[in-house]
Amino acid sequence: MSAVRMCDKCGDIFSERTDGWSTFVGTKNGRDDRGRPTTTSEQMDMCAACSMPGAITPRLAVGSATGVDRIAQTQTQADRDRILNGDATDAEPPY
Fold first, then answer.
1. pTM attached to this predicted model
2. Rounded to whole angstroms, how far apart are CA atoms 64 and 53?
3. What residue segments make up the domains of the chain, in order of their start?
4. Distance between CA atoms of 54 and 72, rounded to whole angstroms?
5. Which among 20, 56, 62, 81 is most buried, taking Cβ atoms within 10 Å?
């Protein structure tokens, strides 16, 4: 079984056996608790789609039976809780 990684750009999970993904050391700028500028170096991973813009990468077609896009990064914690609890359904009941 191969290891998995998460893309630091889009958040997708991908296998290390996938072609085209990349890893690099990036510099992150921020401020410490006193407001002084700081820089830290971090190793970052990117999936094939983010590493090679314009490349065609296969994706699963996930239907939205709940009315909430499960892949969207705009999903709130309340949306995730409703999905996990089974409370999020906009589908019409069968008659």
1. 0.47
2. 26
3. 4-51+63-85
4. 20
5. 20
